[in-house]
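User: Teach me something about this protein's shape.
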Amino acid sequence: MTISNCIFDGTDRGIRLKTMRGRGGVVEDIRVDNIIMKNIKDQAIVMDMEYGKSSPEPVTERTPKFRNIRLSNITAYTNEAMYINGIEEMPVSEISLHDVVFEAQRGITIRNAKDIQLHNVRVNTTVGSSLKTDNVERLLVNGFETAKPLADKSVITLNNTKGALLQNSWPFGETKKYLEITGADTKDINLQNNLFTNELILVGKEVDTKEVKRN
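Assistant: First, the predicted structure itself:
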């Protein structure tokens, strides 16, 4: 499926994928490009595999899958930038954003996901971090920024994230907190070619400092 050259104005959401345990099936090979969104009431982009609440179960034909979804060249004015929510036994996988700008109250939340890439993404928020992850594996963040940093919130919060590469970040001069790393399960966090000092990094006491590598 390909979605391109569209304007969304006043919709509840922009791009929305939803499912739940028991529905099964695979949603994959989706391309979204060259989109403008205005006055979005909820999320500009949402991929939610817990549309109905249920308990984890063994992977069977009942288990849904979201994978291989690419989004690029998007500008969105919205309440919440993006919400990705997989399920414990089947994370959302192979999602990428390229050249995306969000003007939002709340930023990007990614939970229960793996193989996620964000390239040249700007998220300006009025509440909370611009990017929050929880239980994510293999995360690449390349050139992520906010032009309107909040004094009391980190731009990026990584919680229980296993394997992350954060590179080519250049925070705006007003930034007080850029990166916060939390969660006892967090490991293998790599910081490369970034233009910010250690003073903009907060590491929780529960995180093994050897797992945060700066180059």
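Now, about its shape. The chain has a mean pLDDT of 97. The radius of gyration is 17 Å. If you'd like, I can walk through any region in more detail.
User: That's plenty for now, thanks!
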